[in-house]
Amino acid sequence: AAPQATPVALVGARIHTAAGPAIENGTIVFADGVITALGAGVAPPVGADVVDLSGMVVMPGMLDNHSHIGADSRDLNEFPVRFGPQHRIRDVLSPDDEFWKGAVKGGVTTVITGPGSGEVSSGQAIVIKTWGESIDERVVKERGGLKIAMGRKRPDQSPTTSMAVTAMLRAKFIEAQEYQARWDAWEEGGQEGPAPPRDLAMEAVVRVLTGEDRIRAHVHQAHDILAIIRLSQEFDFSLAIHHSTEAYKVADDIAEAAIDVIGMPLFTRIALADEVMATGTLMNEKGVRFTFHTDDPVVGSKWQRGNAGLGMRYGMSEQDALEAVTINPAAIAGVEDRVGSLEVGKDADIVVLNGTWYEVSTLVTRVYVNGMVAYDREGEGS
Q1: DSSP letters spanning 72-119
Q2: Residue 173 CB neighbour total at 10 angstroms
Q3: Tens-place pLDDT, residues 308-322
Q4: What number does CATH give the domain 1-60+341-382?
């Protein structure tokens, strides 16, 4: 469906833009799916549909940089394959509302969803809106990152140890370099003779090595964090580490490597050491770009706001916590030009709440995606 052309003006709310300080008694105007005006002294345009939000709070649609929603869980891991970078989550995404509605109702309007963690590489993620008529229309960015999983694996098939996993990855990166070299030689030789055989797995890895895509690494232990950092430096690829349970133990190494951290807490899984719960505070202090995640369905997407509240409990400022569920995950995914903050020219992905945005007692009352009402609590999803 096309975004409505008639301008909509949300007036009277406290607006958290994630791009600056909150705007009291603000107005936000959007039309054709895009924000056209924003501020405290903005007058609604003539003919606009004016929505009075006095006493309410507005924030950007949230993002979740590590999710598995949109597909049947049985399609997330291709056992017993150990290395499957050619697998694409897009090929199993369903338009069925049941896979997405929990995220929309919780105010998460964009996710980076991808395969599971059962293999050394399970495949390719995608950046996608959580609401819309079709999967194709909702795609924000095709390349959402190539998933790898560091650490020990099941004992029934090699590799099983952390060092063997790292060795396999090093070998695969070298194999990808050699694969691309054969294609380069064929191209530079005037394409004489038959082309080298195509290898979809190697093509996916080559995209990482050329900067067209990046590595999103499932990793918990400090030694595995250091190992994937070394690989990123050896093969010069862009890296974000996910879960990052022991990131606090190697925070200086992470900062020096200038990688992104998608980290703890996972809202309802709170039985973790204080050092883990304070990961966001420590990363901010070190100048590391940080975001929370839910790992949905491990934790429901709707608790992404709760992650931010817990981050504040463990020392984050409100602004840092807000950015960790909005503009930071957008920037990590490379889509900050469209989503992640409320600014003129960006997608009108907007969440309306009836209280303080990070409090779990606060309810999401309405969600706009591309300027259209994706969820209305009064109509429960009208």
Answers
A1: -GGGS--TT-SB-TT-BGGGG----GGGTHHHHHTTEEEEEE---SSS
A2: 20
A3: 999 999 999 999 999
A4: 2.30.40.10
Only one residue has tokens 């409320």, namely 342
Say yes or no: domain 62-339 is CATH 3.20.20.140.
yes
User: Angle at the Cα of 33 (from 31 to 36), degrees rounded to 5?
Assistant: 45
User: CB pairs under 8 A, 24+ apart, for 21-27?
Assistant: 21/319, 26/58
Query: What pTM did the predictor assign?
Result: 0.96
User: For residue 169, what is the enclosing H or E element?
Assistant: helix 162-188
Say if residues 247 and 261 touch (Cβ distance below 8 Å): yes
In this predicted model, what pLDDT tens digit does every residue of 28-47 receive, in sequence order? 999 999 999 999 999 999 99
Residue 98, judged by CB atoms within 10 A of its CB (0-12, 13-18, 19+), counts as exposed
**In the chain, domain spans:** 1-60+341-382, 62-339
Locus of tokens 């997407």: 301
Residue 188 neighbours by CB under 8 Å, 6+ apart:
none
What's the rounded Cα separation, in Å, for the pair 382 and 77? Answer: 34
Query: Kind of pairing, strands 34-39 and 260-263?
Result: unpaired
Tokens 């056992």, located at residue = 79
- Greatest alpha-carbon pair distance for the chain in Å reads 71
DSSP string, 329-368: HHHHHT-TTTSSS--TTSB--EEEESS-TT-TT--EEEEE
β-pairing, 8-15 with 23-31? antiparallel
- Torsion from C-alpha of 372, 375, 378, 382, nearest 10 degrees: 70
